[in-house]
Write a sequence for this structure.
């Protein structure tokens, strides 16, 4: 009789030989060490690349924002300007710049594309930053003489259909030291036809605008036409602009210049000087027939003015002694035919203008110059980055007589889309390399 013990013994005898393979434990430990080491090497390499990309991007962006200038810090114009990067930060990110030496139009890029922006250059630190002006409409901006305020047109809602995308619906003043904005919304059915925006002094703004006659859905002629521009005066201690009472004969003249509490008007053949502290009074500055205005005249006293003559530019500078009523003694500034625009006066003889050097007939060394109104001798104040900046730059006129300082080149941040894409690509490649490595080790 076969017992259970016998059966178990027979089964044991028939079982194949077995037992753990030689050094199985050591091989398993070695496999895990290799897989772990490879994974750690791949992850470490990926992290180093990610850190390098992030650090280089931060370095290219200029690192930390410039510290605020101490009260009473010296303000001056930089002796040179650069073309700013379209990826510079804005004041919404890094805060106000403080007193400005220069504002300039420049391309500004974002994740959705590129559009025109406004860059400010600090008068104390030389830092460049885009100015984020709330509800800014397309159109002119104006830097105040002291460099502390920027005037611009507002966009908003019209009472009827707008004549265009982003219609002008008011005017505002941005305080570059605090970031505050003073707004004056203007009632409009279809939008304003904004034509002039000028500082008469640090606390007074003069502007001109008409009302578009039609909006979306109206006749195209109505959409593109506007009522004749009226002239307004905004003292910033008041809530909103007031209409300027215009004397007979000047009501339809264009507002083309302002300085020292005075305004210049022209009908393209004659010029008038309007005193803001004498409402309704204007007297002829220049009556030379055929002298079509090309850029704004600027003057220091009631008896001195300068204008780029002719109906095109660049052209020469005409300077006059307008102390004689009904006419003016004038002369052309020698060697000034490369002038694009008068920016102001520095004293009673020196004109500040934008143009080119040498004969100033070609796009060579485009700069802001101080020009002797009698001899035509010019001294470069600010070297521009390119000829295109001639029409893009405004400077704080209070700084004309202050010695310039060395310009500071702005940072050139990387395109954040490329940086983000690079970081994502490194992360994906690193993860893929880990998976491939682990599978190879397992095989």
């Amino acid at each position: 009789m076969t017992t259970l013990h016998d059966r178990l013994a027979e089964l044991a005898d028939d079982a194949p030989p077995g037992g753990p393979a030689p050094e199985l434990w050591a091989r398993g430990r070695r496999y895990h060490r290799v897989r772990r080491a490879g994974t750690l090497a791949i992850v470490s390499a990926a992290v180093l690349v990610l850190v390098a990309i992030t650090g280089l991007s931060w370095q290219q962006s200029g690192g930390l924002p410039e510290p605020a200038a101490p009260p009473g810090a010296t303000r001056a114009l930089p002796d040179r300007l650069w073309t700013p990067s379209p990826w510079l930060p804005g004041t919404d990110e890094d805060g106000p710049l403080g007193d400005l030496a220069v504002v300039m139009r420049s391309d500004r890029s974002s994740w959705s594309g590129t559009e025109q922006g406004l860059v400010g250059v600090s008068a104390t630190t030389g830092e460049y930053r885009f100015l984020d002006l709330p509800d800014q409409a397309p159109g002119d901006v104006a830097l105040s003489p002291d460099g502390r305020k920027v005037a611009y047109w507002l966009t908003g809602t019209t009472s009827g259909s707008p004549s265009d995308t982003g219609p002008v619906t008011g005017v505002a003043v941005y305080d570059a030291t605090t970031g505050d904005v003073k707004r004056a919304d203007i009632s409009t059915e279809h939008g304003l036809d904004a034509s002039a925006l000028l500082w008469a002094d640090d606390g007074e703004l003069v502007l001109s605008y008409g009302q578009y006659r039609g909006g979306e859905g109206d006749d195209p002629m109505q959409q593109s036409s506007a009522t004749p521009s009226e002239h307004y005066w905004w003292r910033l201690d008041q809530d909103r602009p007031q209409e300027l009472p215009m004397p007979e004969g000047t009501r339809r003249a264009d507002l083309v210049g302002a300085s020292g509490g005075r305004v210049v008007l022209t009908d393209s053949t004659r010029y008038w000087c309007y005193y803001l502290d004498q409402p309704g009074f204007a007297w002829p500055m220049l009556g030379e027939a055929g002298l079509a205005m090309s850029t704004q005249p600027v003057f220091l006293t009631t008896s001195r003015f300068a204008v780029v003559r002719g109906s095109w530019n660049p052209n020469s500078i005409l300077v006059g002694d307008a102390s004689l009523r009904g006419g003016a003694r004038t002369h052309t500034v020698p060697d000034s035919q490369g002038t694009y625009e008068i920016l102001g006066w520095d004293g009673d003889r020196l004109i500040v203008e934008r143009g080119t050097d040498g004969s100033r007939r070609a796009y060579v060394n485009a700069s802001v110059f101080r020009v002797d109104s009698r001899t035509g001798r010019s001294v470069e104040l600010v070297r521009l980055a390119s000829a295109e900046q001639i029409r893009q730059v405004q400077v704080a006129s209070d700084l004309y007589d202050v010695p310039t300082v060395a310009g500071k080149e702005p940072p050139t941040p990387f395109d954040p889309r490329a940086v983000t894409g690079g970081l994502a690509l490194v992360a994906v490649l690193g993860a893929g390399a880990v998976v491939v490595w682990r599978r190879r080790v397992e095989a």
Observations:
- The mean pLDDT is 78.
- Residues 24-60 form the longest helix (37 residues).
- The first strand starts at residue 100 and ends at 110.
